[in-house]
Amino acid sequence: MEPHFFQLLDRIRYQAALTAIAREGKSLALISPVGALAEHYKQALLERLGTDLQHIEIRTFFPADSDGIVQHFNQVVGEMPMAQALANRGDQPGLKLWVVHDAMALPAHELQLLLQLLEKFPGAHVRALLVYGNAEVIPDGLEAFEKSLMRWVVERPNLEQIKECLANEPDPLRIKDLRALIQRMAPGSGMADKALADPAPRSQASASTPDKASSRSAWVLRWLKIFALALGLLILSAGVAAWLNPQLVSKLKSHWLPASPTAAQTQAQSSSTAPDAPATSSTTPPTDQSAASDPANQAAGSSPAQASKEGESKDPTPTQTGEPSSPTEQSAAQSRTKPEASEPASNNKAAKDGKLASDTGKTGELLTELPEGAAQGEQWAKQLSADNFVVQHSISPTYAQALDIQKRFPELDKAHIVPQFVGNETQARFALVSGPYPGKEDANNFLKTKRSPADSWLRTAASLQERLVAKAARGRKP
Predict the structure, then answer these.
(1) Does the N-terminal or the C-terminal CB of the chain have fewer CB atoms within 10 Å?
(2) pLDDT tens readout for residues 423-449
(3) 348-368 pLDDT tens trace
(4) Would the pTM count as exceeding 0.85?
């Protein structure tokens, strides 16, 4: 029966561990900070090996001292020719698996002696399963046996992974076992209570088919959510457009929402029309007086936008009335027309400046401001020597994710979060970096002695500094 996997990586490494023991002639070190999780995968491996390999011999191995290790090993190879003991027998039957249930209690020198004997005499067909439960860091000395020993580090699952595993389990009996495993993983903590307090798994929920009314209501609710989201995005885009173009908004407001004229506007209109009344009455017939007075009355009772439009059509062209404009009217007309003439020019200038800013390719100005920790990491990376080496543990799309990875590994508390531009992207990613180290050997020693993510790798400080700037801005003169 397959064990419960909280992460996809655990499923892959479980299959790799079976292949390494049964076919590749390797031993296995099972390491996990959660003792119950290490015990769970150990039991699953033993059951699967016992089923797949008919002639396998599984026994508990915990010698009293180094002499006990040598004595047990001599019992295996004592009657075997030396050439056969030194030869690699591959996947021949008769595999012996020695299980060290608590490898943390075994002294380091005895453990290294056992692994040296297994590596030197592969023909003995003996493998070791070393179980490190409640191990927060990878034990020392295991990296020297990379050819004959596979290391499987089982990370602690988070609450979301536990919930997803519980929801995707269709078998009620396996659900019961999974709940018991969750309780053993975090006894007395709130994580197990939160995971087990969730509703029934998806399989049980799908077993009870909902009626048509409930499915219809769910469908309506889903579309209402989509509509609300689209409406919110539309309102947000309209607000951004209004913020970027305040002059256009004021023009639309004056066109669609006319306001009543103020007292100062009516007084200015009456003062501008009063000097013209006697002149028109003395030079034009009475019929022209009514024609001249009607527009003034209409302008006084109409909106300021209409009055300004009529003033613009009459004041600059004195030939329409046959009367020369007074200096007051000319100054008033100029004060009304100058702002409107300058608005398009300012808009064109702002649009031109915006276009130039986008064409120059200064992507650093278009990006959001770096968090304080990332800015400090950037300054740290700029000061590195180009011939140094660093260890990159991860690269995340957000600063918060990079900080979360650093918190999960206490020994990386002195690591730096450095912004990095990948490919042609203009938005920075965030790399978790340790160092600097003067050579590759020093960086490798850090990886061997410190607990870090499994996909950590070495790189030069020069390559780290090169990606501090987006690709579009590289090579451009400052």
Answers:
(1) C
(2) 888 899 999 999 999 998 888 899 888
(3) 433 333 333 333 333 334 445
(4) no
